[in-house]
Design goal:
Pfam families: CinA, CinA_KH, MoCF_biosynth. The chain is of the alpha/beta class. Helix content is 41%, strand content 25%.
């Protein structure tokens, strides 16, 4: 059983919109042990859609296409697909009533005429009702191949996948070959150095296990993938190799599952009954945003102070004027007082503080753009460190966030 994902939209090709749908769909198909063999992003043109379907039909058993189901003129997927399958579009009264009901729930007295066309579906397709949007999905089977057509809006696509498509695939397709994935997340070690550290373990992997390095700023996630007919045996053998790697990299391992760094931190704080606050200057609230994006963060996160100016650092956090005068806002002395001030103001067990020059302006000869000072403070210790990042503003901020969280993790240990 193999799958292909096709995303439609000129906005994907010109870089205006990032294709997040494919990654999400592929991850969830993987949970059903259905490997994705090809992903394509194509234009809103009839010939592009037909060519993509023709090629996908040759190499995959499940073809999932997103986009082009809306009511506007550039949404041509339905008409093109009907032509491809040699069928017609018919007006589905149940879908029409469903779309009208959605407009009423939104407080609209009438539905725009163009939305009536969203009730037109393939004559021989199963309709996938969309409870969170006006574009229904469709599913059709031909020659043992299963085609699914979904709206391109991410939250609508996810609803239909979770509530319509994945349950059907789970019940219908039973694969004889299983795919097992397991993960390990590391921080504070680069990809090449990490690979050197575990080279002998990687060399010993059997042919049915592959190891993928998935780096991002400040961290590397390792994915172990194995294929075979006995899921329990796959899991046992694969996990034994992962445990060897985890033991080798014990100083850098954050998670042995697929959780994010922030999720691990939130869970660790919550389980330990300890609390966190942040005092942010150059990161402008990015650290607190990352933490509070995790469900359940309210159990451990107490508050954040975004203190850009020197006056705010003094007024809100109690940073001493002499410290700012003698060392400057971007200094380990200042972030130390910021972190300790945040713990005091918010009454937390731990705090992170950042101050730096993210760029592109503001740098000096002694403190060039990318100079960042970070402090993490606990009840018994405050640690500080200066970093010299040399990237653009957005990446400097992202590096600062990850560096701060890594320092916090090391302090917790």
């Amino acid at each position: 059983m193999k799958a292909e994902i096709i995303t439609i939209g000129d906005e994907l090709l010109n870089g205006q919109v990032v294709d997040s749908n494919s990654a999400w769909i592929a991850q969830h198909l993987g949970l059903l042990h259905i490997p994705v063999v090809h992903i394509a992003s194509i234009s809103d043109k009839n010939h592009a859609i037909k060519n993509a379907l023709r090629q996908a039909e040759e190499r995959a058993d499940v073809i999932i296409m997103t986009g082009g189901l809306g009511p506007t003129r550039d949404d041509v997927t339905k008409a093109t697909v009907a032509d491809y399958f040699g069928t017609t579009l018919i007006r589905n009264e149940a879908v029409l009533a469903h779309v009208e009901a959605i407009f009423r729930r939104r407080g609209r007295k009438s539905m725009p005429a163009m939305n009536i066309g969203q009730a037109d579906v393939l004559a021989n397709a199963a309709v996938l009702f969309n409870d969170v949007g006006t574009a229904p999905g469709m599913a059709i089977e031909r020659n043992g191949k299963y085609f699914v057509f979904l709206p391109g809006v991410p939250f609508e696509m996810k609803f239909l996948m979770e509530n319509r498509v994945l349950p059907m695939l789970r019940n219908t397709y039973k694969s004889e070959v299983f795919v097992y994935n397991t993960y390990l997340l590391t921080v504070g070690i680069g990809e090449s150095h990490l690979a050197e550290q575990i080279a002998d373990i990687e060399d010993a992997l059997p042919p049915f296990i592959t190891l993928a390095y998935l780096p991002r700023i400040g961290m590397v996630r390792l994915r172990f993938t194995s294929e075979g007919r006995d899921m329990e045996a796959l899991a046992s053998i694969t996990n034994s190799f992962k445990e060897q790697v985890a033991e080798r990299l014990i100083d850098h391992v954050v998670s042995v599952d697929n959780r994010s760094f922030e999720e691990v931190l939130v869970q660790t704080f919550t389980d330990s009954g300890i609390t966190l606050s942040t005092a942010e200057s150059c990161t402008g609230g990015s650290i607190s945003a990352q933490i509070t994006a995790v469900p359940g963060a309210s159990q451990m996160f107490q508050g954040a102070a975004v203190v850009y100016s020197n006056q705010a650092k003094m007024d809100v956090l109690g940073v001493l004027p002499d410290t700012l005068t003698q060392y400057g806002a971007v200094s380990e002395s200042t972030v130390k007082e910021m972190a300790e001030g945040a713990r005091r103001v918010f009454g937390t067990d731990y705090a992170i503080a950042t101050s730096g020059i993210a760029g592109p302006g503001g740098g000096t000869e002694t403190k060039p753009v990318g100079t960042v000072c970070i402090a993490v403070s606990g009840k018994s210790e405050t640690r500080t460190q200066t970093f010299h990042f040399k990237n653009d503003r957005a990446i400097n901020i992202e590096r600062t966030v990850i560096a701060g969280l890594t320092m916090l993790w090391n302090l917790l240990k």
